Amino acid sequence: NVYLYNSPFQALMAANLALYGDDPRGELYMRFTYDLWKNRVLPAWRQVMGKNGGWHEGGEYVGIGIGQAVYQVPAMWRSATGEDLFQTEPGIRGFLDFVVYRKRPDGTDFRWGDGAHFDKTAPDLIPLALEYRHAAAYNIRPPKSRPEPSSWPWGPLTDASLVEGNAAQALPLAKHFDGIGLVVARSDWSDSATYLTFKAGDNYWSHSHLDQGAFTLYKQGELALDSGFYGPKYGSDHHMNYSYQSIAHNLVTVTDPGDNALPGGKVLREIANDGGQRRIGSGWGLQSAPIDLNEWLEQRTLYHTGTIQRFYEGPDSVVVIADTTSAYNNARSGIGEFSHRTRRVERMWRTVIYDRHADVVIIRDVVHATRPEFRKRWLLHTQEKPEIGGDEFTVSLPFDGARPSGGRLTARVLLPAQPIIQAVGGPGQEFWVDGKNYDENGTLFQTMAKKAHLKEAGAWRIELSPASPSKEDDFLVVLIPRSGLEQPAPEVRRLGENNDYGVEIRLGEFTRQWWFTANQQSVRLETNGQGVFVTAEPPASSSDTTWWGRFTSWWRNL
Asked: Among 457, 460, 482, 459, which residue's Cα sits nearest to residue 405?
């Protein structure tokens, strides 16, 4: 985690490369350094970064941690050994994409995990961008025009030929960071773009939250935000009871009133029952960080918390299908332990669709609880108070200098039928969990006021629940982000009943229909008579000779 990469690992590598061959003790020290680098650190990078880059820690921890080691260690190693890991490790190159895509249209970083600063540049971003000639990353904060060393205490020298303000526009509008299970999609690369993030992956212990299956949505401001404040200190009541837990994120909770085991250890401390995911990772004092990939794999039942089963990007749409059941339950859930919690969820799948043509987000959830009386709550967090009317709610952001046209979110709830929609929050209930407001006894806002750049702790949330208890429920919500300069929202209506249901989006003469099938993780898009099929289910039987069966089999094999 950040402690290793803050500087000790780079110093270890530098000192032992200098010592090796000059002192008889250097052989033993280099054996240790080699083992740590090649057999422990590098495999962890491959796991976390995947093929496309990424990092699991939030906020400034990307900068003060991995943001230097990711360049300096491979560069020193290449200089000493000739082995060029920049060429053989795609995740290192993908880290540059991650740094670019984590930037919202307002130029700050997205709010995943622990973080108090969202404008910190990775220290060795420039030399890494020079290595790959990655203009988009280089231009996040380009250096001065005159050549100068880009990494202390040595080069490479900066290169003004990479300065190109619109370099990011050459990149795809969506990216799947497969190692951490993160998808970022946007409408375009302008300041007024719609910006969507969705997370569903495994737990890597350090400075991340219990938020698998959560999404955020930004347009002219934070419309569906990752709420909570990182403070007033690490491990505070607000941090552990609210911002760290699932309740502070845009996902589904399932509450068992009897889920009230204490953490144990030397200090017994009650933690709010938020109905959320298993409590694992740093801060809980329950287990040490896995020392390497092998140890993580030995405890996979603990750290496996979700999988993006399918990522599809078409010409004007993005579809993500994810299974986050393991974030709520594992083999030890239900034995009375605080970390593993009670067994409340048998199935938790979420499908997220960004229809770029209509600029609409569709969230579909399939939730199977262990018992019908366990209350399901579909959550969406906002800074401003939402307005509720029938099966719809809206959130409008104020007009100010930072937002020349305040963003607006309109949400249509298509499932469950006759939904219960409640707004929770406001003065005295901003961080409400299990009957208590975790605002540090009223002092949290004083701390927040001293940090003007932190304006998105949230103050309200929508809680959407079925009208009657049931073990199995589907949620289907259509989110329509708009700014004050845009045309009215498209017409949206629910299609079908029972097993097959969907969403129709009508925008002028253009009509799109997104179809789902109960208890199946698949999506079918019909656009003016043309179809696209995306599924996370096993391939159709070869005996299926219908036109639709032949089409779906062909599509799955693309």
From this structure: 482
**Please, which residues have CB within 8 angstroms of residue 336's CB and are 6 or more apart in sequence?**
261
**H helix count then E strand count, the chain:** 16, 26
Q: What is the pLDDT of residues 51-98, one digit of tens each?
A: 999 999 999 999 889 999 999 999 999 999 999 999 999 999 999 999
8 A C-beta contact, residue 217 and residue 195? yes
DSSP state for residue 103 in the 8-state scheme: B
Give the C-alpha separation, 360 to 364, whole Å. 13
Instruction: Quickly tell me which residue has 């199935």 as its tokens.
Output: 347
> How much of the chain, in percent, has pLDDT values that exceed 90?
82
pTM of the model: 0.94
Structure tokens at 162: 């990479």
What is the average per-residue pLDDT within 151-179?
A: 93
- Integer-rounded Cα Rg, in Å, for the chain is 24
Within the chain, what is the greatest distance between any pair of CA atoms? 79
Selection from 472, 218, 38, 228 nearest residue 30 by Cα: 38
Task: Locate 186 and state its tokens.
Answer: 């946007």
From residue 174, give the alpha-carbon distance in Å to each of 19, 166, 215, 331, 506: 45, 17, 14, 35, 24
- Residue-wise pLDDT tens digits, 503-532: 999 988 889 999 999 989 999 998 876 778
Helix (H) or strand (E) holding 415: strand 408-415
Contact by Cβ (8 Å): 522, 537: yes
- Please provide the DSSP assignment of 316-378 as one string: SEEEEEEE-HHHH--TTTTSS-TTT----EEEEEEEEEEETTTTEEEEEEEEEESSTTSEEEE
Quickly list DSSP for 468-483: S--SEEEEEEEEEEE-
Beta-bridge partners for 413: 477
The tokens for 539 are 């391939």
Residue 156 preceded by cis peptide, ω within 30: yes
Q: What is the pLDDT of residue 398?
A: 87
